[in-house]
Each structure stands twice: as C-alpha cells, then as structure tokens.
Amino acid sequence: xxxxxxxxxxxxxxxxxxxxxxxxxxxxxxxxxxxxxxxxxxxxxxxxxxxxxxxxxxxxxxxxxxxxxxxxxxxxxxxxxxxxxxxxxxxxxxxxxxxxxxxxxxxxxxxxxxxxxxxxxxxxxxxxxxxxxxxxxxxxxxxxxxxxxxxxxxxxxxxxxxxxxxxxxxxxxxxxxxxxxxxxxxxxxxxxxxxxxxxxxxxxxxxxxxxxxxxxxxxxxxxxxxxxxxx
Length: 231
What we know:
The chain has about 230 residues and is mainly α. It has 9 helices and no strands. The mean pLDDT is about 80.
C-alpha cells in the first residue's frame, strides 16, 4: 500500500507540474466554455421565465460536454514527449496508481471548467433574479464529471498511437456518454423544474447516473492496465 501511494503521489505531482507549466491546456477549454455560453445568450435573447431552467440545463451540459471532451482527449499528450510514456511502461509501476493519477488530474481540470460554466450560465442566462445554481445541481454535475472523466482517460490511452485520433475519439466517446448525460439532464430537470430532491431521484435517473459512474470507473480501471502493458 505504501508503494502504491508513493507511486500515485509521484505520478500525480508530475501531472500537476505539466498542467501548471502549460496554461493553454486548461485555458483553451475554459475559453471555449465561456464562448459557448455567450453564444447561447445572444442566440436566445430574452426567454420566458418558465423556460429558463430548461435553457440553463441545456446550455450548461452542452457547453461542459464539449469543453471537457477537448480536455480529456489531451490528457496523455504530455507523456508522449521525450518517450515518457514508453519509459513508464517499462517501470514496475502499478497500473492502478497510474490510472488514478491521470483520473485525479482530469477531475481537477473538469472542476476547473465545470464550476465557471455553471456560474456563467446562471449569471447570463437566468434573468428571473433567483439563482438556479444549488448544491443538488452541483452534485449531479460532479457525478457526471466523475463518469466522463474515467471514459476520457481510457479512450485517450486507447487512441494514443492512432493516426486517426481526432476522428476516432469522438466517434467512440460521444455514444458512451449518452447514458451519463441523459441521466444528468433528467435529474437536473427534476430538481429545477419539478422541485424534487436528491433522495427521491435515487430510485430513478440519479440512481442510473450512479450505476453508470461506478460501472465506467471500474471498467476503465481494469482495462487501463491492459493498455499500458509493455509490448
């Protein structure tokens, strides 16, 4: 366990240093997110109050969905520089520690993108005067992020050596995200429009979101080790 934690901390610290040294890796998805929100604002203009929650949900999840996809697809790019990825594969490193370090940095970047997206959507799209952003919605968004982050790390690893990565990645990623996004959107709709609470939703859409999150994380954790095995 001590060796596992030491490997995890070392790999995570290396990933943090890389991300911090290259601000473009997290700044470009963040700017894309802000641009998308502004497009929604100018496209829809003044919206009737009863439609504001639906617009907020659509704008937030669509914006975050595309922004996160940009960030996820590039998570292993730094490891390809100076053949770092090939060297790490030959070391006695726990695949689980490697995966969890990448997963942690992906979630951190995701929160960095998701939090401003939720806030900006509420600031610019909501003209009702009553904030739509609450703890329940933040929990739903975070649960969706945890599921999508695992998929992002796995698919980024699978496509690492593919010459058609820019085409194949979204073709595989988008269909796999449908259950997660559908569950998150329906749960958010139930919270903001129908006035339900999280405990009520655990037996419906929110429960489905939790199930897919656990399934995707477990599957990705197991498959990651196979993908990084030395050839």
